[in-house]
Structure formats: structure tokens, C-alpha cells
């Protein structure tokens, strides 16, 4: 039995980046041998075990064969006869197909270290084209490592284009696609993810609504620079689309509710926000009511942030204006109205009237 550290932990150590998760590969062992040493099996599709003390995952070396469409269309074979090289060759990129043994020696049969040095994202073998999810993964890695100067190798981009043209991307589940999109959006250069998908034709297959969204990529880039949240980044990417297009994208990928809501609200009210300094108090109140700034202040703050990210320059006075307007409306005290005996609809109307007066006073300052 031989145990190797594999994948991202090896890659990031060589890049001098922090290593968070470690993947372990076991060559030359059986399921029975692993269990005899106290490892607990957890893999549903292929043998993966939890270390009895550390809880880290250890996978038996395996090969795979294409047996159907999509990300899950593979048959796996794990046995003591599978070599390290046979296991590594099934991985996506050469920089992810390196291993370190217990002595720290590097095993690099597919020249991942050279590609690290040359800043290339290159596929390991032609079998890359069998898994459509790898198109999204490579685009995500391009977004992550863009600050270090990494590019997708021409031959790998050609394979990604081949996958896009094959229709295999349509076999991906919404959940798997969104997981990659979500992770890509939270990378340091998320706009690169979209650019790579566009270059290989995958964007037109997965998100055709974004095919001509150069302005939204600039907003997305700003959102990443300012370390904005996932809902803000998703809203920046979808800003400017028609409501039907925003709804279609939200539904297609089963986007989390918080991201869905903010994207829809940005689509509906961003132009009003840009004209906030000229809004009548009644329009301003309608906007604040729509956002429910009294019970959900963070959603309105996220909305303003998304608008700020899309500003042509760094100056966006509308942001502070809207924040102060919301504060003025929230400052109206409901207690005196309750003490007057108002309830239900009457209370709601009286509260709305007082908030409107507060906004009139604010806009006249």
C-alpha cells in the first residue's frame, strides 16, 4: 500500500498558495485492507474512506470509463492493480495530476510542474472531452489563477469548444452547474470565467442571455475587487437583462433565493437608483417599500452596492443619498400611531403618510 497527496494540495504548494483541503490517494490496497486499518467507507460511487483519526478523505486508485451522458455518466473501477499513473491520467488538468509520496517526492507523469511554470491550463488526455463539467471547471480555474498570468492552452480550448458543440453541456444538472458558477463568481477575477466560456462557445449553450454583456463583466470585476457577496456579484452579472431573461437564468440553474431576489430587484430598479437624486418623494417611498427596507435593510444595502459596482467611475453619490433616504424613512416611530389606537390598514396608511413626509423633508434639504 502506498499513500500519496494529490491534486490541489500539491498544485497550490508549488504555487506558494495556502493549502486548505488535502486529497489523499491510496495505491495497491483493497477495501478490506482499508477497513481493517480503521478507515470508514463513505463513497457512494467509488471507494472513499475517512481516516480514523484525522477524518480526512482517502480514495482508492481508480480508472473510469464513459458510460452515459453528462457529469455522472461514468463507470469506475478500483482495484489494487490500478497504478498511480492510471489514476492521475483520468484527472482534468496537468496541474491537478501531480502527486507527492510520503517522503515529499513529486510524481509528475504528465508534466504539470512545467505547465505551472508556463502558466498554462492544459488537459491531461483526450478523455477530458468525456466530461462536460470540465468546461466549467477549467473556466473557473482560469478565473482563480488569472492574477498569476494563467491562460487556457489552445488545444484545451479546442476540446472545450468540441464539448460545447456536442450538446453534452445540456446534460449537466442545474445543481452541478450552479455549484461551479457560484465558486467561479467568488474567485478573484470572475469575469474571466465568463470570457473563457464565451471563447469556447459554452456561454451560448449555457447562458445565451449573457452573450453580449461586456458592461456587466466590468461591474462583476468591480464587485470582486470590492469583495462583494455572491448575491451582489450575481446581480451585477445579470444587470441590464430583460426581466424574462433574469427569471430564465434564475430558474435554469435553480439559483438560491437571495441571489434570485436581488438580481430581479436590480433589474427592475437600477435605472431609478441611477436617477435617485431627481426622484420625487413618492417614487422614492415606493422603491423603499418594494425593498422592505424596514425589515430587510441588508437587501437594500446589497442593491445599492450592485449599483455602485456598475458606476462608470468610482463616484456614485446616489448611493449615500439612497442610504440616507432609507434611514429617514426607518426613523419614523410607529409607537405614537399605535397609542392613538390605529390598527391594521389604518395604521399602515398613517405610517406610510408619515414616512412620505419624512422623505419630503429629506429631499428638500
Automatic annotation (TrEMBL):
- tRNA nucleotidyltransferase/poly(A) polymerase RNA and SrmB- binding domain span: 149-211
Per the entry, what this protein does is: Catalyzes the addition and repair of the essential 3'-terminal CCA sequence in tRNAs without using a nucleic acid template. Adds these three nucleotides in the order of C, C, and A to the tRNA nucleotide-73, using CTP and ATP as substrates and producing inorganic pyrophosphate. tRNA 3'-terminal CCA addition is required both for tRNA processing and repair. Also involved in tRNA surveillance by mediating tandem CCA addition to generate a CCACCA at the 3' terminus of unstable tRNAs. While stable tRNAs receive only 3'-terminal CCA, unstable tRNAs are marked with CCACCA and rapidly degraded.
Q: Where is the Poly A polymerase head domain?
A: 4-122
* The protein's enzyme class: transferase
Also noted in the record is: A single active site specifically recognizes both ATP and CTP and is responsible for their addition.
- Which residues take part in binding CTP? 8, 11, 91, 137, 140
| Originating organism | Pseudomonas carassii
Per the record, the similarity remark reads: Belongs to the tRNA nucleotidyltransferase/poly(A) polymerase family. Bacterial CCA-adding enzyme type 2 subfamily.
**Reaction equations catalysed:** a tRNA precursor + 2 CTP + ATP = a tRNA with a 3' CCA end + 3 diphosphate; a tRNA with a 3' CCA end + 2 CTP + ATP = a tRNA with a 3' CCACCA end + 3 diphosphate
Which molecular-function annotations from GO does this UniProt entry contain?
Answer: CCA tRNA nucleotidyltransferase activity; hydrolase activity
Which UniProt key words apply to this protein? ATP-binding, Hydrolase, Magnesium, Metal-binding, Nucleotide-binding, Nucleotidyltransferase, RNA repair, RNA-binding, Transferase, tRNA processing
The taxonomic lineage of its organism, from the top, reads:
Bacteria, Pseudomonadati, Pseudomonadota, Gammaproteobacteria, Pseudomonadales
Q: Which cofactor does it need?
A: Mg(2+)
Q: Which NCBIfam families match?
A: PRK10885.1
Q: Name one Pfam family in it.
A: PolyA_pol_RNAbd
**Protein name, entry field:** CCA-adding enzyme
- Binding locations of ATP: 8, 11, 91, 137, 140
Enumerate the residues binding Mg(2+): 21, 23
- What EC number(s) does the entry state? 2.7.7.72
Per its UniProt record, what InterPro entries does this chain match? Answer: CCA_bact, NT_sf, PolA_pol_head_dom, PolyA_RNA-bd, tRNA_CCA-adding_enzyme
User: Coiled coil located at which positions?
Assistant: none
